[in-house]
Amino acid sequence: MAHEDDPLEHERASWKPSPGLAVAVTDPVHTPELPPHRARMTDKDPAAMKAAVRTVYTLFYISVAASIWAIAAYMLFPIESGRIIDIRHNNLFIGLGIALALLAIGIGAIHWSKAIMSDKEFVEPRHATRGRDTTREAAIQAFADANEESGFGRRTMIRNSLIAAVVASVAPGIVLFRGLAPHNSPTNPIAGDPVALLSHTMWEEGMKLAHDPSGEPIRAADLTLGSAVHVIPQPLSEMSHHDGYLEEKAKALVLLVRLLPEQITEPEDRKDWSYNGIVAYSKVCTHVGCPVALYEQQTHHLLCPCHQSQFDVTDQAKVIFGPAARPLPQLPITVDDEGYLIARSDFTEPVGPSFWERH
């Protein structure tokens, strides 16, 4: 206890706040109550409730129609035709159908929860939960209450249309898997065999190497040291508007690189596969088939942008990094009497992903 002549105590007793100085006053904090419940129009007007119900199941049926349209678009614009217009329409209309199907389900579900489901506020006290019989009974009761409040069991039109929309929304994705199935035909017995399809391209002995996409043939003398050129077979440029163009181009794409002859490591059986330091390798990555088109001039590495596989151009395009399982196939090349680069033969091994070679 302080003494009566304590100067600090006298100072405390005589202190008064200066004018304009805010003084904090501690008051008890009260938990705010729930605001008054405001009835929705659908709660007050039966006609509004019926209109909301019709809106919800109409949206769900629109979703069903959009899913069916996505499947129809897959058949109306077959991507297998190889025509660019069909590929564009295939992607556009299938995408629009799937997007509308999912959007209609989402909007319908939100409108259902806001306009039709129970709108009464309630307070749920927190308590310790344990795996007892009473907990199981409470969980069952909670499902029963949710069913009653949402009207899922009573409103059959909404329930059935929602189930139909959800089931239909999955159908386009299932149908799209058809594109992965074999499509053999009497005229093309290997059409469904990826191993046979990728074992041969349109490269043939004596076929000129040409710039992609112009089709202009390439002279060996025109390639500068360190250059990297995207190459296609010259006849391919003449069939750009024909069926099968994209398939043939996807297999036959080549990257042409010029190095110093002494920089190239070649086994004896491949000594004549390059010409004066010029080498040609397939652009199709042996991992999952992405185009290998990024060339690092200083390191002589080819980089696949999809999964970062790297290949050494100076050493038979061997894999030096990444998930690719084997080197890029090499196209044997030479020059003709006019100095144009030509192919000695087709690739001697399948192009593309390694997993296609599994039987």
Automatic annotation (TrEMBL):
Q: Sorted alphabetically, which Gene3D superfamilies does this protein's record hold?
A: Rieske [2Fe-2S] iron-sulphur domain
Which cofactor does this sequence's record say it needs? [2Fe-2S] cluster
Q: How does it sit in the membrane?
A: Multi-pass membrane protein
**Is 4Fe-4S included in the keywords of this UniProt record?**
no
- What are the entry keywords? 2Fe-2S, Cell membrane, Disulfide bond, Electron transport, Iron, Iron-sulfur, Membrane, Metal-binding, Oxidoreductase, Respiratory chain, Transmembrane, Transmembrane helix, Transport
Q: Where is the Rieske domain?
A: 251-342
Q: Name one Pfam family in it.
A: QcrA_N
- Listed GO molecular functions? 2 iron, 2 sulfur cluster binding; metal ion binding; monooxygenase activity; oxidoreductase activity, acting on paired donors, with incorporation or reduction of molecular oxygen
Where is it mostly found?
A: membrane
Domain of life (superkingdom) = Bacteria
* TM stretches of this protein: 56-77, 92-112
Subcellular location field = Cell membrane
Please name the PANTHER family in this protein's record: CYTOCHROME B-C1 COMPLEX SUBUNIT RIESKE, MITOCHONDRIAL
Query: Which family does the record assign?
Result: Belongs to the Rieske iron-sulfur protein family.
Annotated function:
Iron-sulfur subunit of the cytochrome bc1 complex, an essential component of the respiratory electron transport chain required for ATP synthesis. The bc1 complex catalyzes the oxidation of menaquinol and the reduction of cytochrome c in the respiratory chain. The bc1 complex operates through a Q-cycle mechanism that couples electron transfer to generation of the proton gradient that drives ATP synthesis.
Name by which UniProt lists this protein: Cytochrome bc1 complex Rieske iron-sulfur subunit
Q: Which organism is it from?
A: Microbacterium terrae
Lineage, uppermost ranks:
Bacteria, Bacillati, Actinomycetota, Actinomycetes, Micrococcales
